[in-house]
Specification:
This protein is mainly α and 179 residues long. The protein has a single domain (3-136), classed as CRISPR-associated endonuclease Cas1, C-terminal domain (Four Helix Bundle (Hemerythrin (Met), subunit A)), CATH 1.20.120.920. 54% of the residues lie in helices and 8% in strands. It has six helices and four strands. It has a two-stranded antiparallel sheet. A hairpin with a 4-residue loop joins strand 3 and strand 4 (145-148). Helix 1 packs parallel to helix 4 (88-100) and helix 4 (88-100) crosses helix 5 (120-135). It is globular. InterPro entries: CRISPR-assoc_Cas1 (IPR002729), CRISPR-assoc_Cas1_C (IPR042206), CRISPR-assoc_Cas1_HMARI/TNEAP (IPR019858). It holds the Pfam family Cas_Cas1.
Length: 179
């Protein structure tokens, strides 16, 4: 059930990437790991998860308590939950941008029999673009000013704290309409 929205999202997104040249067949393909698109999606998700996890720890939230993702021994479920909010504007946006501008090419990937992954040069390109994306300013309506996406991640953690501590009566998620 939870995969249906993702399936619909990627059905619309994947053809755009295929036009640009990176192979992103579908999320539900048995040989998904053999495609460049999955390797950059996975790498981007790991970078985003680690970024969000750092902000969760700094905010003093319990990283093991999640709302969407089940707790797991070696996983900060709350970081995964918050990362889901930011994935479309950070990871997915970067995939489309890097593919469209042809920043990542097939020679930025290494393959073996079972998988495809970014090589060192590809990782360097992806990380540089990821860091630039985190510094990108977006309009933050509650403060009536622009802030960096990295700051928005931190503010989302504090927004959650205010809701949990009942300082706010309802949790109002980030609105990316001004993005």
């Amino acid at each position: 059930i939870a995969r249906q929205p993702l399936r619909n999202y990627y059905k619309k997104t994947v053809p755009i990437c295929l036009i640009g040249g990176l192979g992103i067949p579908t999320l539900f393909n048995d040989v998904l790991a053999a495609f460049e698109g999955n390797s950059i999606l996975s790498f981007g998700n790991v970078l985003l998860y680690n970024t969000v996890r750092s902000e969760v720890y700094r905010s003093a939230l319990d990283p093991l308590v999640g709302f969407l993702h089940e707790p797991h021994e070696n996983r900060a479920s709350l970081a995964l939950d918050i990362a889901e909010i930011f994935r479309p504007i950070i990871v997915d946006n970067l995939i489309l941008r890097l593919d469209h501008k042809k920043n990542l090419l097939t020679n930025h990937f290494d393959r073996d029999e079972m998988k495809c992954y970014l090589n060192q040069k590809g990782k360097k390109i992806w990380i540089k673009q990821f860091k630039e994306r985190l510094r990108t300013s977006i309009r933050y309506t509650p403060l009536k000013r622009n802030i960096a996406i990295q700051e928005e991640i931190k503010l989302e953690c504090y927004n959650l704290i205010k809701y949990i501590s009942r300082e706010k009566k309802e949790f109002i998620p980030i609105n990316f309409n001004n993005y």
